[in-house]
Amino acid sequence: MNYQREYSHRERHSSHQGEQGISKNKRYKKLSGVCAGIAKHYCFPRLGVRIAAVSLFLLFPMAVAIAYLLAIIILPNSEY
User: Fold this and answer.
1) Cβ contacts of residue 40 below 8 Å, gap of 6+?
2) CA–CA separation, 79 vs 70, rounded Å?
3) How far from 17 is each of 21, 55, 65, CA to CA, in Å?
C-alpha cells in the first residue's frame, strides 16, 4: 500500500501565505468540511481526522456534537 501525504508543511505555507486559521474545506467535505479543514491545517490525513472525530463522538456524544455544530457556524469556508 503506497500512502502519499496530500498536504505537506511546505505546500500549506507557500500556497496560503495570508491564511492564518482553520477553515472548512469545501472541496473535500463529507458533511460540512470541518474535519477536512482541520486535517489540512495540521497536515494530518483527512481519514484519520474523520475516524478520530467519530471515535470521540461515540465516547462523548453531546460534547462532540456541540463542538462540531459550533465549528460549522464559526469556521469560515475555504476551497483551497
Assistant:
1) 7, 12, 25, 28, 46, 80
2) 20
3) 11, 33, 32
Domain containing 33 equals: 9-14+22-78
Say if 39 falls within a structural domain.
Answer: yes
- pTM of the entire predicted model: 0.69
Can you read off the three cell numbers belonging to residue 47? 481519514
Hey, is 24 helix, strand or coil?
Answer: strand
The answer for residues whose C-beta is within 8 angstroms of residue 50's C-beta and 6 or more apart is: 30, 35
Residue 79 grid coordinates? 476551497
**Can you give the pLDDT at residue 14?**
43
- Chunked mean pLDDT (size 10), the chain, 80 residues: 54 50 86 91 93 97 96 84
Domain presence at residue 2: no
